[in-house]
Specification:
Elements: H1 5-15, H2 19-30, H3 35-58, H4 71-80, H5 89-106, H6 122-134, H7 138-158, H8 163-166, H9 168-186, H10 191-203, H11 221-240, H12 249-262, H13 279-290
Helix pairs in contact: 1-2, 2-7, 3-5, 3-7, 4-5, 5-6, 5-11, 6-7, 6-9, 6-11, 7-9, 9-10, 9-11, 10-11, 10-12
């Protein structure tokens, strides 16, 4: 796969192809599966994403711990009642679906880790909402998922996507960046615009800590999927308008890696700092683990 976004964008521009095509070509060089086989496997993942997103808004989804759940359904019902969100009809619905997927994960349901379980709501929330409101086909979304996967592979190569390695910037930050690149392509943007959407997204999420209450992927993870979705849409609009990151995309990824390496371990998924260390966070942790 590619070691940099610059390399990936250059390949797409030289061959006059969208990013997803150069990602597929790279995948075919690495494996023994045919194009039809890897396309079908990605389509299957899309269906899992759709089921989890729909499940979480069709009924209140509670976590096994009991400390989270039901908010995606509550928000969706509020939207369906005709309330006018100041975030607008697209972002608000994407947020609802992003939270839904993460609540399904907390309830031990089936999701697709994109790139992790804790950040799994952002990519489906963004793409499924764009499909519903803009009429994109499943094939369009599958192509976008290949673009997202190529970006994710570069981030893994240059940095990390694990909260334990680099904080929540590496989880929800990477997920939002992947979704931004995919959405820009889906909406007709050029390869270099997708790359700048990645950079803009990550720049706005640098330093975000991973501080899960009780060590569970619930609080604040579910709502951070909502925030990551919002960051994604900001970056998409800016990139499509021609706004570029002064710091090159690959250097932004490298900066995230440097920050992650130097982040105190209390803020890297250990549940020892941040929200997990607040009085309420400690009380909830005691309730959860004393009940075991």
């Amino acid at each position: 796969m590619f070691s940099s976004l610059a390399e990936m964008v250059a390949a797409a521009e030289q061959e006059d192809k969208p990013l997803h095509e150069v990602v597929i070509a790279a995948e075919l060089k690495q494996g023994r599966r045919t194009r039809a086989e890897i396309w079908e496997r990605m389509h299957q993942r899309l269906q899992v994403m759709r089921r989890s997103a729909e499940l979480g808004i069709s009924a209140p989804m509670r976590s096994l711990s009991g400390i989270s759940g039901g908010n995606a359904y509550k928000f969706w019902q509020w939207l369906e009642a005709g309330n006018q969100p100041i975030s607008g009809p697209i972002l608000s619905r994407a947020v609802a679906h992003a939270m839904a997927v993460n609540e399904v994960n907390a309830g031990m349901g089936c999701i697709v880790a994109t790139p992790t379980a804790g950040s799994a709501g952002i990519l489906p929330g963004v793409l499924l909402t764009l499909q519903a409101l803009r009429g994109f086909s499943d094939d369009h979304l599958v192509a976008a998922l290949f673009t997202a996967s190529g970006v994710g592979a570069v981030i893994v190569h240059r940095a990390h996507v694990s909260g334990a390695a680099g904080g929540c910037q590496a989880e929800t930050g990477s997920a939002a960046a992947m979704a931004a690149a995919a959405a820009v392509e889906l909406l007709g943007g050029a390869p270099h615009q997708s790359a700048h959407a990645v950079a803009i997204t990550l720049k706005n999420m640098l330093g975000l800590v991973c501080d899960p209450v009780a060590g569970l992927v619930e609080v604040p993870c579910v709502k951070r999927n909502a925030a990551g979705t919002a960051q994604c849409f900001v970056a998409v609009d800016l990139a499509l308008a021609g706004v570029e990151s002064i710091i090159p995309p690959d250097e932004v990824i490298d900066a995230m890696a440097e920050i992650g390496r130097n982040m105190n371990e209390r803020y890297r998924e250990t549940a020892q700092g941040g929200l997990a260390a607040t009085p309420t966070g400690k009380r909830l942790a005691k309730l959860v683990w004393d009940a075991e």
